Structures are given as structure tokens and as C-alpha cells.
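Long-time lurker, first post. I've been practising inverse folding by hand and with some scripts of my own, and I keep getting stuck on stretches where the C-alpha cells seem ambiguous. Below is the full C-alpha cell string for one chain I'm working on. Before anyone asks, I'm not after the true native sequence, just a reasonable design that respects the backbone. If someone could post their per-position residues I'd love to compare against what I wrote down in my notebook.
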């Protein structure tokens, strides 16, 4: 194992620059035995352990002053059954690499979020989700997990084997052990028909339930000073469509993908953001300009090439899951609040949907959810905006995305999650000494005792 010398005081920093840490030790396991050894060595040295994903959480979820386990040497698919769709992958595999490997096998994940830079275990551990009223977050696609526990032993859990550990560990916050391998239930590769077009935000809200029900993957973006939203509807092309001979638009040619995703949505938007940061008074006008510039785009492509787009402009983000029926209220309150903020907002609001699930700390646990994500361009003040947003979603029992900025603590979170204490009990059993603890977990789960 390539273990960094203890004199290595390399700083860990997340993608957004909102969290840093100086681990006492770095370790980069290349097989499961090395993961177990790293956990045991940490225990012998009296150090805590956190597995690192790609650092794409905005919270300090992965931060540690103990041993940082860099999982980037532990990647790839180890087993695949194309008939059942069951695929086992090592936990440090990025979603990008996973999508490419699955594609080669004629398989795909049924749903994905906006980006693919995350590791599989990192994405699962914070409850990463995409959109789709009939679909859950990524963790609902998990069939089994292999975990290295605090004593260095390896266990497998699934719906039939250690079901309580499974219910907890699918969205486990890195609190129960180091996920070593993940078995996913994948689906045959599919093509999505993407339809993106502007629509007045009032109309989107009026038709929200209908749009969520009528599309496999429905979401919208809304620049909070504008009246227009960008509505994205991604629907699976079926054999039925082909049999009907329904005309479908082609994939975007490479030059257009480059122009629209890299130049317009990243380089040009980044330039507007920099202008807004230099001249904050221009932001509402720039925001309205961006809103007015929204245009229609329809194309087809392999599912992951539609779900995922490059995000090169850095930002800070908070996201809450709210009961689906309260979305209209939340957006109306945000609309009232944003123009009164002391600092203008440069980034759009994103709204997605998910089906209810039964994973203990899933943000969609037990309820049909709408996700409302707010963002601010890096370097611009965001605290008042995020505080105001939190007070709006608090009124409808919003649950924060575990990987995005929020201020809730265990007292409040316990009232939002009916299985919260069971999660804590399973954690105490799996990790009696708090080997996998960090400051973020202490805040959100409470002290490590029962
Ligand atoms: C640009 C951008 C776009 C995003 N888009 C979406 C989106 O569309 N939908 C969404 O829901 N979220 C989204 N997110 C949030 C992101 O998916 C989550 O924060 C995710 O957890 C990041 O994964 P990561 O690999 O970077 O993990 P990290 O942030 O590095 O770690 C997250 C947690 O996982 C734990 N962990 C990592 N590996 C292991 C392991 N092997 N075993 C146990 N625990 C482990 C870490 O200790 C930490 O607690 C986005 C974030 C960014 C920056």
C-alpha cells in the first residue's frame, strides 16, 4: 500500500472550496486487504478514518483530521451479469468510468444526477439523486454492499442479509464503514429523447404535477429574477417509438455539443458570472439576460450523455428535499425573498423530483419529493441567501442533501427522519468507538453514544 509518511501534511480541499482538512495520514489502498489494514492501523494509532470520494460534496462530509483513505486506486467492475443486470463495482470507481464500462456491456444505470465526477461510494453515501417521479435516487439501484467495518472485518449486506445494515448503509454518510464494493441493479442501455425549452415559470408551477407524471425525467431551472424557466424533459425511446416510425431528432453533432455545453453553458456563462462578481449591481440584469437567452434544444443520445453535462463554473450549493405538494409554496417564497437579499444571486434554482423510498436516511424516505437546489457563484456572498432558503424549507419539513450546504443538527434531523435513531443504533453496533467519525457526523448524528 502506498501510505503517505506521517510527515505528509497535505491539505484536502473539496471541489467548491467550501471545506478543507489536514489529515494526519494519507493512505491509498489498492485492494480490499489494504483497506482492512488501513482501518486496523488507524485503530492501533488511535486515529479516525474517512474514505475520500472525488470531493464533490459541498459539506465537510469527507473531511478528517485522522486517516484519509484515497480510494482512487480501487476501481473497476469486478462482475457483471448482463441477463439480470446485476453489476458489482469497486467503490472508488467514478460514475464516468462506470457509465463507460456499463455501456460496453450493453447496460446503464436507470437514473443519474447532473455530473459523473463522483465516485460510486461517494455518490451513494450522501444520497445523490437525479430526477424522475417514478424513480428513486442512486441508492435505490443498489442490491448489495460490501463494507469494511471498524474492526477490519468485511461484511456483505443486502435486503436478505443483514437488512438493517443495508437499510442504513445505502445512504450511510461514511458513518458505518468503508464501502468496498457495490452491486447495482442496472438496466439495458437506453436512449433518451431530450427536450429542453423555455416556459413561463408560473405555467411550470401550475402544470408541475402533470409534467412530473408525464415524463420519465422532468426538471426545470429558473433564474430567480426572471419569469422564464428552462424545462427539461428526458424520455426513454422505446421499441414502440421505433415501430411507429416516430421521427426523432438525431444526437447533437460533436461541434454542437462543444458549442452548447462547453462554450455557452460553461465558458460564456462563466464570463457572465465573473462580470457579475466584479459588478454585483449588474447581476439582476445579467440574470434576466440569461433567462431571456434560454432556447429550445431537442436531441437523442445514450442515457448518460443526456443526464450528465460538464460543470466547469464553480459555485456553492444548498439543496433540500421537500414534500412534492409544497413546491409551489417554496418557489413563491423564494421569489419574494431573492429581490430583498443584500447580495444578488448569480445562479439559477434547479427543481427535480423523486419517488418515495425506504432507505433510512434517504432524503426521499417515505415521501414523494421535490428537490429545490439553490446556488451562488464562487466568491460571491451566499450566507443570507442560504439562510433565508433554509427558513423557507424549514416550514415544510425540508430535508437537506447530505452533501450540500446546510446548518441542521441532530436535534432537528431526528424530527425529520422517522428511522433516525435506528440509524444511530446500527452505527453504534457497527462502529462502537466512532472510528469513522468526523466533525460533520457529530453535528448531524449527535455524539457517538446511545
Ligand atoms: C458540480 C456538482 C454537481 C452535482 N450534482 C449532483 C446531482 O445532480 N445530484 C445530487 O444528488 N448531488 C449532486 N452533487 C453532489 C454530489 O453528488 C455528492 O456530494 C456526492 O457525495 C459527491 O461524491 P464524491 O465521490 O465526490 O464524494 P465525497 O464528497 O468525496 O464524499 C462524500 C461522502 O462519501 C463518503 N465516502 C466516499 N467514499 C466512501 C467509501 N468507499 N465508503 C464509505 N464512505 C465513503 C465520504 O467519507 C463522505 O462522507 C453535485 C456536486 C457537484 C460539485
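-- Answer (accepted) --
I ran through it position by position. Result:
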Amino acid at each position: 500500500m502506498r501510505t503517505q509518511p506521517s510527515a505528509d501534511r497535505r491539505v484536502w480541499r473539496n471541489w467548491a472550496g467550501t471545506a478543507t482538512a489536514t489529515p494526519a495520514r494519507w493512505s491509498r489502498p489498492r485492494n480490499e486487504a489494504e483497506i482492512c489494514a488501513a482501518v486496523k492501523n488507524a485503530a492501533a494509532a488511535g486515529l479516525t478514518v474517512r474514505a475520500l470520494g472525488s470531493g464533490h460534496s459541498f459539506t465537510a462530509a469527507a473531511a478528517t483530521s485522522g486517516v484519509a483513505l484515497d480510494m482512487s486506486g480501487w476501481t473497476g467492475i469486478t462482475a457483471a451479469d448482463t441477463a439480470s443486470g446485476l453489476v458489482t463495482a469497486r467503490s472508488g470507481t467514478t460514475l464516468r468510468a462506470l457509465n463507460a464500462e456499463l455501456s460496453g456491456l450493453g447496460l446503464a444505470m436507470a437514473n443519474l444526477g447532473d455530473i459523473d465526477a463522483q465516485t460510486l461510494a461517494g455518490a451513494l453515501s450522501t444520497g445523490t439523486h437525479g430526477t424522475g417521479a417514478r424513480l428513486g435516487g442512486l441508492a435505490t439501484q443498489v442490491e448489495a454492499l460490501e463494507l469494511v467495518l471498524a474492526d477490519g472485518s468485511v461484511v456483505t449486506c443486502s435486503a436478505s442479509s443483514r437488512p438493517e445494515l443495508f437499510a442504513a448503509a445505502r445512504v450511510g454518510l461514511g458513518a458505518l464503514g468503508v464501502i468496498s464494493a457495490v452491486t447495482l441493479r442496472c438496466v439495458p442501455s437506453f436512449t433518451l429523447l431530450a427536450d429542453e425549452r423555455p416556459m413561463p415559470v408560473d405555467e411550470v408551477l401550475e402544470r408541475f404535477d402533470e409534467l412530473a407524471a408525464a415524463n420519465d425525467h422532468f426538471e426545470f431551472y429558473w433564474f430567480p429574477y426572471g419569469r422564464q424557466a428552462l424545462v427539461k424533459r428526458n424520455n426513454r425511446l422505446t421499441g414502440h417509438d421505433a415501430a411507429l416510425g416516430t421521427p426523432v431528432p438525431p444526437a447533437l453533432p460533436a461541434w454542437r455539443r462543444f458549442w452548447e455545453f462547453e462554450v455557452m453553458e460553461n465558458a460564456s456563462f462563466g464570463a457572465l458570472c465573473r462580470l457579475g462578481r466584479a459588478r454585483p449591481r449588474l447581476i439582476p440584469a445579467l440574470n434576466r439576460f440569461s433567462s431571456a437567452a434560454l432556447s429550445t434544444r431537442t436531441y437523442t443520445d445514450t442515457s448518460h450523455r443526456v443526464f450528465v453535462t460538464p460543470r466547469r463554473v464553480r459555485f456553492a450549493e444548498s439543496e433540500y428535499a421537500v414534500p412534492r405538494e409544497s413546491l409551489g409554496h417554496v418557489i413563491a417564497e423564494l421569489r419574494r425573498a431573492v429581490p430583498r437579499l443584500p447580495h444578488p444571486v448569480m445562479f439559477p434554482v434547479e427543481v427535480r423530483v423523486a419517488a418515495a423510498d425506504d432507505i433510512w436516511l434517504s432524503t426521499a424516505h417515505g415521501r414523494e419529493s421535490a428537490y429545490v437546489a439553490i446556488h451562488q457563484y464562487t466568491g460571491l456572498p451566499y450566507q443570507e441567501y442560504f439562510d433565508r432558503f433554509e427558513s423557507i424549507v424549514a416550514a415544510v419539513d425540508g430535508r437537506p442533501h447530505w452533501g450540500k450546504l446546510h446548518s441542521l443538527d441532530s436535534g432537528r434531523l431526528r424530527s425529520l427522519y422517522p428511522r433516525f435513531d435506528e440509524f444511530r443504533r446500527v452505527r453504534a453496533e457497527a462502529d462502537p468507538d466512532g472510528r469513522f467519525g468526523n466533525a460533520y457526523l457529530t453535528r448531524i448524528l449527535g455524539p457517538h453514544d446511545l
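A couple of notes from the structure itself: The pocket of flavin-adenine dinucleotide is lined by residues 15-16, 50-57, 61-62, 71, 91, 113-115, 118-119, 121-123, 125-126, 128-129, 173-174, 178-179, 311, 401, 403 (CB under 6 Å). The chain is about 30% helix and 25% strand. Happy to go over any region you disagree with.
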